[in-house]
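Quick log. Single chain, no ligands specified.
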Amino acid sequence: MKVERGRLPALDWLRFAAALGVLAYHYVSSYLPDDPGSRWLEYAAHVTRYGYLGVELFFIISGFVILWSAQGKSAASFAVSRFARLYPAFWAAMLLTSACYLLLGPYAPQVSGQEVSLHRLLANATMMPQLFDAERIDGVYWTLELEIRFYFLVFVLLLLRQMGNTERWLYLWLALSAWISLQGAPRWVEYFAVAPYGSFFIGGCLLYLIRSSGWSWPRAAALAVAVVLAATDSIRIRSGFISADMESAWVVPLLVVLLFGVLLVLLATPRRSGEPAPESGFSYQLGALTYPLYLTHAAIGRMLIEILLPHVGAAAAVLLASACAIAIAWILVVLVDEPARKPVSRLLYRGLDSAGSTLTAILRPGKP
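-> predicted structure:
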């Protein structure tokens, strides 16, 4: 398998577009009143309600990027890189959101009364608070648990030195996902199969295999099954985000297929040997903004819109909240996300080295 290094600007653009889609879904279609007092906002809300599919786009991209980033890594280095990439920014965003609950919550009745206890903070710090019987500090954190479950599957492949057999495991995972979709399965099986979103991750992984190693009939067939399964599951999933009406019954799966189509065109074409990697300065900045923007836009934005709405109107409230969300994301990138990665990685590696030395000393004690 050819391992391509560098960055793909298309990924950064797509991630930022996905984050903006989710932001628009929340700010325009979810947080504004049913009658925002503006005809164009009413029309916009009808369109932006499909912005939640940015989450599904994130999952597809994650399948592509994580399988790509895992190439040539050990299980330990993969775990360290993912931890350093995700947790520092997440902790900062979680603390900032909690502070906003305390400071802004009293002026935003819809979110007032949010408990900010030590137990809730510590449970959320793991990204999997429900394992500790705690509510998420921000509802959008639900996607992080799914990402962690996907990372765990990749970690196991690396640990068992099965990366060379990734394609076979993907086919098995796809078959299991289809079985779950058609017949259902025990809860623990669905949990580890990342159901009902497994097909999105699988599709992203297959796009990476196609880009890195080219097309084959099994890959083409598996990708087709993954797309159909994702489109089918999206019809059922949509009721958790929007009204399950007749229009959304065909628009949602159509958009899912279109997302895969766009990604196929942009990502699945191998770069010719010797062709230089495209410049990625501005796109890199957009990509860097995506994660903290997703983490902080929802709860903080809801409070800001509710506070601003009576004073400036719906349109201005949405624009101001959006500008604040992007500014907060930029601050987190500059002050937390990028500066923390290398120190956290070094700290984790030192911890692993120390643990390895201690374990070696226990298992192979010196002679008296």
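The chain has one domain: 11-86+142-268+289-351.
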